[in-house]
């Protein structure tokens, strides 16, 4: 089975990196875009077989905002079927044309990043712990 590709469109580099790290740790191929214009340029250049399997789209961005990206995708027959997960801290309901709405706080993304980093780099302690860790003499 081919690796799934996710286009992550987010202007905040910290959040974009966190989402990219989380997705890559789960085996996804991630294409990052820092604003809507960059996302539209990428989408205009992909062939049908190379389209992303999912777009994670921030709504509030410079140059071209998420709403414009979403509207452009829905008007294009080659892009209209790509699911779009909209990420917005201010939206209260799913925008028309979006597949789903996620309204996380910045602190939640950072918490996810810390959990992901800790789980991928931490070594599990030996069990049972060595005697000195239990307060006894070394064995």
Q: Which radius of gyration do the C-alpha atoms yield?
A: 20 Å
Fraction of residues in H or I helices? 25-40%
Regarding quaternary structure, what we see is: single chain
> Which CATH class applies here?
Alpha Beta
3D architecture notes:
With 139 residues, the chain is α/β, with parallel strands linked by helices. It has a single domain (5-106), classed as Response regulator (Rossmann fold). It is 35% helix and 16% strand. Strands 2-1-3-4-5 form a five-stranded parallel sheet, with helices on both faces. The radius of gyration is 20 Å and the shape is globular.
Q: What's the short version?
A:
With 139 residues, the chain is of the alpha/beta class.
Q: What labels would you give this structure?
A:
alpha/beta, 139 residues, Rossmann fold, single chain
List the helices and strands and how they pair.
Blueprint lengths: L4 E5 L3 H13 L3 E5 L2 H10 L8 E5 L7 H10 L8 E4 L12 E3 L3 H16 L18
Helix pairs in contact: 1-4, 2-3
């Amino acid at each position: 089975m081919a690796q799934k590709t996710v286009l992550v469109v987010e202007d905040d580099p910290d959040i974009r990196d966190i989402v990219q790290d989380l997705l890559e740790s789960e085996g996804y191929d991630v294409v990052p875009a820092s604003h809507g214009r960059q996302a539209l340029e990428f989408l205009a250049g992909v062939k049908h077989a190379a389209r992303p399997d999912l777009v994670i789209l921030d709504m509030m961005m410079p140059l071209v905002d998420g709403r414009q990206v979403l509207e452009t995708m829905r008007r294009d027959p080659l892009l209209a079927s790509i699911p779009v997960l909209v990420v917005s801290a201010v939206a209260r309901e799913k925008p028309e044309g979006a597949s789903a709405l996620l309204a996380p706080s910045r602190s939640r993304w950072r918490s996810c990043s810390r959990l992901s980093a800790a789980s991928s780099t931490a070594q599990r302690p030996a069990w049972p712990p060595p005697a000195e860790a239990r307060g006894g003499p070394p064995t």
